Amino acid sequence: MARTRYATDRGLIARMGATMFLLGLVFTAFIIVIFLLLTRFTTVSNGGIIFIAVLFGVAVSFGSYYWSDRIALSTAGAQLVTPQQEPELHGVIDRLCALADMPKPRVAIAPTDMPNAFATGRSSKVAVVCVTRGLLTRLDRNELEGVLAHEMSHVAHKDVAVMTIASFLGIIAALMVRFAFYSELFGGGGRGRGRSGNDQNALPVALVVMVVGMVVYAVSFLLIRMLSRYRELSADRSGALLTGQPSALASALVKVSGDMARIPTRDLRAAEPLNAFFFAPALSVRRGEMSLSQLFSTHPPLEKRLKALDKISQQLSK
After folding, report:
1. pTM of the full predicted structure?
2. Where are the domains of the chain?
3. What are the tens digits of pLDDT across the range 84-124?
4. 16 alpha carbon, distance to own chain's centre
5. Does residue 151 carry a catalytic annotation?
6. Active-site option among 143, 145, 151, 232
7. CA 224, 225, 231, 235 torsion-angle sign
């Protein structure tokens, strides 16, 4: 937890901690299964599947951790802006930094009419807060301040680093599934042979690795999405308490979500790679859809976020 004046929510922290604990259990079980496979089956091709998947997973996670800011800005087509270029935007961020007692992040603008914002960077030293032109033209100063307070909460709490580390297991599992599939497809998977080398009835190790990887990926995916939703609720709460204006953040949420619903789906899909970073998801679960669909969402439902902000408003008015 970063040392800032951003408020914390013990309930949310406990739930996020429990989610990380469950991810740790899944990771431990995954390692045990892989160890048993490696000790039971010793062919080069079998070990190669696991080794290559882990190697690629480490490389992908390392790149996401250290260059998340560059990757996100490039994906959004955003450019860094100076205080001379965007004095009002920098003024809002300067005020929030003073309120939160935290270093000022870099500021960027994405040239798209889709109203949204995101923050990224593994630490406050390399963090960047990005808003779209569409957001700047639609929100008033108080609403913009609420959105930026939400995004800077992600920076203060190192959410990008936390989510990258939490995603490590899922990345490795997904890569193992892919490598095992191609190994089985093109190389026969390397029939599992015990230490005697004569066990022709054993299942192909590549197939076992693929099944294990699919199960681990599915479980870790759901846990990571749950963690992401908790962190969005936490950022809403922290940002609202920092500014003292939860109603402004709620108003911004309604405006952004309403305008996003009117944007063509093809344009929203083009922004989907940044969905997990956005203040409001480009593609979200529509009202009335099955609650099961919400398990796969990176953000809580709009109604839940507004209800939480209304509760904060009531607390502040007492």
Report:
1. 0.84
2. 1-318
3. 999 999 999 999 999 999 999 999 999 998 999 999 988 88
4. 13
5. yes
6. 151
7. positive
